[in-house]
Every structure is written in structure tokens, then in C-alpha cells.
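Annex B. Sample input.
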Amino acid sequence: MSDFIAEFIEKKGISSVFELSGGMITHILDSLNQKTRVNIVTMHHEQSAAFAAEGFARISGLPGIALATSGPGATNLLTGIGSCYFDSTPAIFITGQVNRHELKGDSGSRQLGFQETDIITMAKPITKYCIQVHDPNQIPIILEKAYSIALEGRPGPVLIDIPMDVQRAQIEVVKIIPYKRKEKNIDFIFLESLSKDILKAKKPLVLSGRGIKASGSQELFNGFINKTKIPVITSLLGLDTISFDDKNRVGFIGSYGNRWANIAFGECDLLIVLGARLDIRQTGADTKFIENRTIYHIDCESAEINNRVKGCIGIENELVDFFEQFNSMTENIKFVSPIYWLSYISELKQKWPDTSELQTKGINPNVFMHLLSKNSNQAKVYLADVGSHQMWAAQSLELNKKQHFLTSGGMGAMGFSLPAGIGACIAIDKQPVVVLVGDGCMQINIQELQTIVRNNLPLKIVVLNNNSLGMIRQFQDSYFESRYQSTCWGYSAPDFDKVATAYGIESKTIINTEDILKVVEWLWSDENSFKPQLLQVMIDPQTNTYPKIAFGRPITEMEPYAKPIAMEAT
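Annex B, continued. Sample output.
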């Protein structure tokens, strides 16, 4: 049966899998090696394997594959599984399990076989489909079902737990008809109403989210914006849905969003939400200010519509179908660009530039992000980890239309970007990738520097080192009278320049703004552009992340000019 699993993966066009070997997956790994040309990427932690599979999936559009042995191997996957679940990433996680006769079943004992662990019960809440295989002959049906479920509707992870004796069983292969998605017609009245509201709106906005990329509808989205001429605000995960230089791009909204974009968000008279959840990080806690205008919400998952923000005109549908049917219905309608609204937004940008939000010593991280990205056209993907650097990146990166941006949104998992960068880099045939990571995040999966070296991956690792857990430190300033337990007190970081050298990666450190362009040139010089490198950027430990929503207030009211009236999560 392990041969069938390996060949199934190859036939689906999935070129790489990610794993950390263990006794209970040796059959499958051996079959992948002996029977296929699938690239087996060995990581140094199962969490990293899960994140790498996620990075691979987000770029390729195919389910990422991660394998782990039973017990600690399987449980180590859980954070990555959750990240895929919350951020709509298709993935197939395969775990090995003890032999069927070693399963404790309903005996009441904690464990019978060595490393036996009930991963199915643990993973069910964060998977779309989760099953332990008992009948070897069911594996063809189970694999095809898992593959389809991972991709259909709102994409997400599935988990298949396979006992060792099942893996080595002989099976009867039956032909399975792959699932084909059926187009769902949208009510003509909904489309007609939307087009009329766009025509009469004075201050319209589109909010684009992760659903654009997850549904594979980027080109259709581009056509929709070009046709309707509506300005676009983006969520964190929708940052790469519109290029920085697009005349219709407004900016990034949310708890740490561009101040001008949040103001526009608060003042629009029509909001069209495409593939975004309107979660608390996008809207703030006070949603009343959003609900006093016309809102259309198109999403493939009905539970997300009229969830936190009430009064939306919602339609549960795939974005691909929406764009195609809207385009057909409005074929003879000419939409006009809202010139005065765009002019007003431009004035807001000039009044509240992102590079002037911070008063800091040394390198201004927003200035750094602009200079890095403006001079890094060779980069195919940017990844940000979680924390202050993630928000500086979202506020200030200048992404072009061919570049991707990946980060951990719903799970918000520190340690994401380095292994996810490995998966993304492999998905694009080892083209250059920029990994943005804070000193705290870097230390969580730092072992994957060896994976990068072994596979000769051109990851440009930029460590923004403020020698603290900066976002939480800022939170302690706001609510704990600057008592820095576990963020500055009892916390430290190494010299990542020296760590990189130990792994055999060329590295540099900068402390001054005037050195930025010099090191960017070093990253992309002819002899270095396809080599792994690490750049350590020293940031003053007291550098805050601004603007930041003044929690409890509308999202248009942001620190440091407004003060919070309630305590929030960081």
C-alpha cells in the first residue's frame, strides 16, 4: 500500500514532500524514494515540515504534503495543521501509527503500542477531514477524497493516520473518479443590486483577503478591479493581491494598518468584501462604525458572513464563479473611477506617511522595508514571521504584481517564516525568497538553517533584531507599567551573524540607515543572488509598532494619538 500512496502523490503533480523520519513512516518514505521522482525534503522538526508544506501549497496551489511518525512526530505537526486550517491552505498530513493489533481501542488504557497516540481526536477540530485507516483496500478512496476535500470550498488541511501493518499490506486498486467542482449560479438580483450600488457610490472600497489567492482567482480579481475601478484595501493575508504601484491600491488595514487606509475604511460608503473574514484584527473590537454603510460580503463559507459585522448583504459562493458571473452580467456597463475619492485618499497618504509614524533611534524599520523591497525585484516571495517586524513589513513592503507575500495569520505562529520559506522556495524551483523574521521567532526553528544549506536554497534571511519580543514589550508598556518580564527581562538573543557563519551561510550585520542600500546590493549581486545569505538588522529595543488601533475605539482612532480604553490581545 505504501507504493500506492507514493505513486498517488506523484500522479497528482505534487513534486515535493516534507518530513522528519521516524519508524512508523519508513515504508512510505522508502516507497517515495524507490517508486517515484518526488523530492523528499528532510526537515529537522515536524513543525517545520508542516510549515514547509504550507509554504509549498500557498505558492503551488496544490496540497502540501507533510509526513511524521506516531507519537511526538504526529503531535509536533499540530501547530502547522492549525495554521493551514485558519489560513485556508490545502494540505495532506500523513502520520504513521502503530500496528492495528497494538492500538488500545476501547480498553481504557492510556497506551498499548510504543508511541501510540490518538492524533485523530487531537486533530479533528483543525482539519476538514481526519481518518485512521483500518482497511487497506480503502486507501485509494480515502486518498482521493482527502485530496478533493483539501482543495474544495474553503481549502484546508486533512490528516490520514496509517498503522504500520496497513502500510505494508497488499491492496486491490480500483479506479476512482476524481471530484469535479460544479459551478453555482448567483442570484441575478444580487449581481444587479451590486452593480447599481457601485455606480452610485461616491466612496467605494474593495477589501481583498486571502480568499483571492486561495481560490486561484487572482487574474479574475485583477479584471474585476480594472473594470469597476474601485480602490482596494487589503487584509494582512491579502497584501499580495494588488501591486504596490497599482493606482487602485489604497493600503493595508487593521489593528496595525496604514493610518490612511484605516481612515478610508471608516469613511467609505460602499464596502465589497472578497475572501476576507472581517475578524477582529481587520475591524477592531468596535464594529458599529463599519455597519453604517452598504456592505457586500462574498465568501465560500456561510459562517463567515454576518458573523462579527452585521447587516451585510451576503452571498455564499466561490469567488471564481462570482467574478465570472459579475463580468458577464455587467458586460455592457461602464464604471467610472471615483476621482475625488482617490484624490482624498492620496491626500491622506501624504498627511500620514508610514515612514513618519515612528520616532526611533538608528534604523527606522519602515524605511528599511521600503528600501529593501524597492531594490529587490529578483525576490519571488516575501515571508514574514509574527510580531513587530510582520506589521512593519505589511505597512511598508513595495510588492510588485509577480511577488507573493506569506505569513501566519489566524494561528499567528512564531517560527513560521523560515520553514515556510523553504517550502515556497522549493515550489518555485529554487528561485530567490526573502524571509523576514524577528530575533524571537528566529530562535524557534533556527535548526532549519541546516536544511537551507543542505538543499542550497537561495533564501535571503533578514533578521530584524531588537533583542526583545517587541510587540509584547509594547503591550507591557501599555498595560503593565513597563514591567518587561520574559520580553526583555529573562530573554536574550544570540548574534545571528555568527550563528549563520557556523552553518556555513554568508552573513552581515548593519546598525545604520546609510548601510541599507549597500547590503541590499550585496544580497542581489551576480555571485550571491542564488545563494543563501543572512542579514542581521539591529533595531533599537524601544522601537514601537505604530500606528496601532487604540483598542476599544473605532479602527480610525489609532495610537499614539489616541489611547486605548480596554485591554486587547497583542
